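Table S2 (continued). Query chain:
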Amino acid sequence: MGWIFLILARVFEVVGVTGLNLITRKKSVSSYLIFVVGLACSFTFLSLSMQSLPMGTAYAIWTGIGTVGSGLVGILFYGESKSILRIIFMAMVLSAAIGLKLIS
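Corresponding output:
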């Protein structure tokens, strides 16, 4: 169950960061709502995942995959750089998260 909670935490982290991006582009009630609800859900699911996963593993995967997810949202929806080096380094972060899953 801990891994499912961690995946949900990651999804909501990306939602929260997307809300933060929306706030910087145009301040609105919906932008703030997306930000607050996304991060509140993310931290809730992260804390639930830590009940059965080691803190270091859960936090490393939460931040790493959240970073990759936010980077992909930026590339796909906000026209951010698609440089090959950026994609390679995101793949490295993702492979490290998968490695942590395999050894825990």
